[in-house]
Amino acid sequence: MNAPLIDPFARAITYLRVSVTDRCDFRCVYCMSENMTFLPKKELLTLEELDRLCSTFVGLGVQKLRITGGEPLVRRGIMTFFDNMKRHLDSGALKELTLTTNGSQLERFADDLYAAGVRRVNISLDTLDEAKFAEITRWGRLPQVLRGIDAAQRAGLRVKINAVALKGFNEEELPAITRWCAERDMDLTWIEVMPMGDLGNEDRLGQYWSLRDVRARYAEEYTVTDLAERSGGPARYVRLEETGQKIGFITPLSHNFCESCNRVRITCTGEIFMCLGQEDVADLRAPLRSHPDDDAPLEAAIRAAIDRKPKGHDFDYSRQRLDGQMPRHMSHTGG
Ligand code: SAM
Ligand code: SF4
């Protein structure tokens, strides 16, 4: 392996999140508008380019790769990519290959993902109510996702449910969702909503629900113990003593995890974001495309980008939140 990626603050970059498409078969209100204009195909990294890019990062010490989107499983041919990534698991260089999905295609792909070496999936699901699910995802259908979750568990994949916390929308469902996850032996993480998509115009679909309040809601029913465990990312965990369940809380823009940040993100067009909370971005597609047979320029571009990884967030997000503006969509950077 070449020298590993270490940023200027001595943090080793071992976790890469890659968005493989900006498209999706859902239109969640907090993520997209109903009428989306997607990127032309030539803008997207091809499957071969994605392979080369991810493999280069693995060669530079990335041990965990999370595939996301848009909806990663609607990208045509994506299973070929997963199958090909398996070689890095087999060699021992990559410790984990995983994905974040809306679950709609899992009935079809769960076994193949397991065969490609995937062992865990994050599935996004905000409500167990069929009508509400259709309302929040616009195009999604709950039974299809539930069948996908069944298929994932049958295939042997460990499932974590990610639920976006929306006041007045899934607030009342917190006990039911928590119980449902416990019964099915699935982990559960709540994500604080960021003002994107059409959420601002659709107040009836719920609104900002701070995770501090979600935690307080748990404390009404359970004995809640804070856990020290960190993942190098924005998640915090608690344990519910009565059930033994571990519950995660992700405040995407919180400032409290920067010192342990081990990750970078790549968009489906090959831009690398060194920090979710900052706008600094570098283009990796140009070195990929202009040197199809030589990885050295790509590697140099990756190192130059990591050298610019900031110490931490320095935006005033509270102000942006009030303005209701976010500089980019989750489906672009990959949630
Ligand atoms: N389509 C896949 C899915 O839904 O899991 C992967 C991409 S999606 C952008 C990744 C995660 O971002 C999902 O869990 C989704 O709920 C979350 N997300 C999207 N928009 C968000 C927002 N405005 N605030 C907080 N989380 C958001
Ligand atoms: Fe699609 Fe995921 Fe965004 Fe929902 S959150 S619209 S499923 S990319």
UniProtKB/TrEMBL annotation:
Its EC number is 4.1.99.22. Residues 311-335 are annotated as: Disordered. The gene is moaA. Residues 311-322 have a biased composition (Basic and acidic residues). One of its GO terms (biological process) is Mo-molybdopterin cofactor biosynthetic process. [4Fe-4S] cluster 1 binds at residues 24, 28, 31. It catalyses: GTP + AH2 + S-adenosyl-L-methionine = (8S)-3',8-cyclo-7,8-dihydroguanosine 5'-triphosphate + 5'-deoxyadenosine + L-methionine + A + H(+). Binds 2 [4Fe-4S] clusters. Binds 1 [4Fe-4S] cluster coordinated with 3 cysteines and an exchangeable S-adenosyl-L-methionine and 1 [4Fe-4S] cluster coordinated with 3 cysteines and the GTP-derived substrate. This is GTP 3',8-cyclase. The keyword Iron-sulfur applies.
